[in-house]
Request: fold
Amino acid sequence: MSSIEALFGKSEDDEDELVERAARALRDAVASHEGRRKTIKAWKPIVAKVLRVSKLYQKQFDAVLAKGIELGLFHIDRSLSYAVLAVGPEPGTEPEVEAEETQEPVAEETPVEPLAKTRNPTAPDTKLDPDWEPPALLDCGHEDVCTDEQNAVARAEGHCCHHGKLKYAPDYRNRKGKFGKLPVPGNVRRTKEKVEMGGFPGLCCDGDGRYIGGTFNDCHRENPKDESKWCEFHRAEAEARRASRPKAEPEPKAKRKAKRKAKAKAGGQEVVAEA
Reply:
């Protein structure tokens, strides 16, 4: 299996066509863009639309960038404080044209009036289709974008699907059936270290590693009054909050005695003197 087939799920015959088509669409989008220049990562939706994928992996995007640079469609400009894409080959890399020994007569140039700056009429529409829907998910949590034949071969080899065979990470929060009972890998679970570092905190999981975070990856929100259904991190956090609360000091003996007297007087009872 080629690297492109592993990345895009396409055969070797479609390799050049697929990557080159995405690279040319990216070049046209960069050429037609006006205003503040975008970072390189900001062009990912354009490539994802051409490849018809809901989630574009960095390796796929890098393959398209490499193809575009190889064809001279665009290059990486590092003259700003951040890297951007610029149309055309990198300056200084254009092939040199040997001068001919005999020079042909140069015809008089007719002055041409400058044209008003307009958008590239041949640039593709980069807006996402409002009716577009992301691919459905299989029970194992992988996107249902591979062919039935690919999935059948992978399952015959003991994998959940073709993407599972390629070691793609599934959506652990939306696994169903028998896959929903499987434990989440330890490096994906929520921990104190991940939360303190910022970014992705990890997934809420029970003691057996099964996902219990619900739609918003928050077991505390799913079961606010039942700590037994919380993940280890949220239980430890709740215990730490309780331990940090100051303990109430006992009431003075005189104050307790006065309360009993007032209660006995209101109820018509005789007050028993305290020893």
In short: The chain has a mean pLDDT of 81. The first strand starts at residue 74 and ends at 77. DSSP finds ten helices and two strands in the chain. The two ends are 91 Å apart (CA to CA).
